[in-house]
From TrEMBL:
Enzyme class: oxidoreductase
EC number per UniProt: 1.1.1.102
Lineage of the species this protein comes from: Eukaryota, Viridiplantae, Streptophyta, Embryophyta, Tracheophyta
Pfam families in the cross-refs: adh_short
Subcellular location: Endoplasmic reticulum
Name this protein carries in UniProt: 3-dehydrosphinganine reductase
GO molecular function: 3-dehydrosphinganine reductase activity; nucleotide binding
GO CC, alphabetical: endoplasmic reticulum membrane
GO biological process per UniProt: 3-keto-sphinganine metabolic process; sphingolipid biosynthetic process
UniProt KW keywords: Endoplasmic reticulum, Lipid metabolism, Membrane, NADP, Nucleotide-binding, Oxidoreductase, Sphingolipid metabolism, Transmembrane, Transmembrane helix
Family label: Belongs to the short-chain dehydrogenases/reductases (SDR) family.
PROSITE patterns, A to Z: ADH_SHORT
């Protein structure tokens, strides 16, 4: 005689397994591998911090690498550093991403791109009430409009002969502050949230051309940019941002590159980032059926954890305000 407990157990196992199988059937777009070796990787903001680490890793994996930034001096220094570390020469392009004509010229000179990494970014933290609109516009222009300029300039040649050249990637460097708004980051968070809208819509437009979009979400990362930022970061910004541990530029570059290679749409960089990505999954594509399963099962409990973070942040703001109000 069959044990009824066993029957319950079988049912209990059957439910998650069938959800898993269902997700395996339906996740779209399907994951693809995006090779790096012998391909043209073009990195904006490639002369410093995360971009420089990405350029170095891509070069050491056998890619043909181009880097773009404003200062030619910093580009030449980066080129030298990459040559020393890898023995590989990268091509450098001095242009401001806010200048569409300059960017178009650079992209034409560099030749058709297989992997475009839009990584340039500026961050000037400040309460909106105290921040000038010039700084607000600066961040939106460089971080968001700069991404539009780069993609518009690169896309036509990226699409050309794609079927002979294999799958391509457009990766955008967002930030955890592009998944949750943080005190002192009104303009910065808006620019980075903006990249998400751009990326979700763009992925639908270019999937038929075998182009795969990735959005990367690093926490605080030890770079020259962060050193500058820290000189004027409001205390509360630092307190709240410390909710996610800091990373090294090399670690972020490694996570980013492996996310790009596996064509992941959302690329978190650490464990808090993974929780954050599940909490904010929304209607983004998820190419991994395993991650899709984790999202389906864990979203409720992670929302609970997210509300605890909000509670904690609000408490920090209250305490800080009490202490600093005369
Ligand atoms: N460091 C951090 O804590 C985090 C950073 N990020 C994001 O990662 C990206 C890289 O940050 P990070 O490595 O710290 O930055 P850095 O400040 O160290 O480097 C920024 C790079 O972007 C270039 N750049 C800046 N403005 C422009 C422009 N208008 N046109 C072309 N290039 C430009 C810089 O060169 P030049 O000045 O010569 O133009 C430099 O190469 C940014 O998008 C940032 O928002 C995300 C999360 C955390
Ligand atoms: C559901 C559970 C969630 C748990 C984790 C939440 C952690 C959020 C921390 C956000 C930190 C934002 C840092 C931005 C860094 C950056 O972009 C700058 N250094 C550049 O300006």
């Amino acid at each position: 005689m069959a044990d009824p407990n066993l029957a319950y157990l079988a049912l209990l196992l059957l439910l998650p397994l069938s959800i898993l199988f269902f997700l395996y059937l339906i996740v779209r777009p399907r994951p693809v591998r995006i090779p790096i070796k012998n391909r043209h990787v073009f990195i904006t903001g490639g002369s410093s911090g995360i971009g420089l680490a990405l350029a170095q890793q891509a070069a050491s994996e056998g890619a043909r690498v181009s880097i773009l930034a404003r200062s030619l001096d910093k580009l030449e220094d980066a080129k030298q550093a990459i040559r020393l570390a890898t023995g590989v020469d990268v091509a450098v392009f001095a242009a401001d991403v806010r200048d569409y004509d300059a960017v178009t010229k650079a992209v034409e000179e560099a030749g058709p791109i297989d992997v475009l990494i839009v990584n340039q970014g500026v961050f000037v933290p400040q309460e909106l009430e105290r921040q000038g609109l010039d700084e607000v516009k600066f961040m939106v222009d460089v971080n968001l409009i700069g991404a539009f300029n780069m993609i518009k300039a690169a896309l036509p040649a990226m699409k050309l002969n794609r079927s002979d050249r294999g799958p391509a990637s457009i990766a955008l460097m967002s930030s955890q502050a592009g998944q949750v708004g943080i005190y002192g980051y009104t303009a910065y968070s808006a620019s980075k949230f903006g990249l998400r809208g751009l990326a979700e819509a763009l992925q639908q437009e270019v999937i038929a051309d075998d182009i795969h979009v990735s959005l990367i979400f690093p926490p605080d990362t030890d770079t020259p940019g962060l050193v500058e930022e820290n000189k004027r970061r409001p205390q509360l910004t630092a307190i709240i941002a410390a909710s996610s541990g800091a990373m090294k530029a090399d670690e972020v570059a490694m996570k980013a590159l492996s996310g790009i290679k596996s064509s992941s749409f959302i690329v978190p960089c650490n464990f808090d980032g993974l929780l954050l990505s599940i909490a904010t999954a929304g209607l983004s594509p998820q190419r991994s059926f395993l991650m899709a399963f984790v999202e389906v099962v864990a979203t409720g409990i992670i929302r609970f954890v997210a509300l605890c973070y909000q509670w904690n942040w609000c408490r920090s703001i209250e305490k800080w305000t009490l202490k600093n109000r005369t």
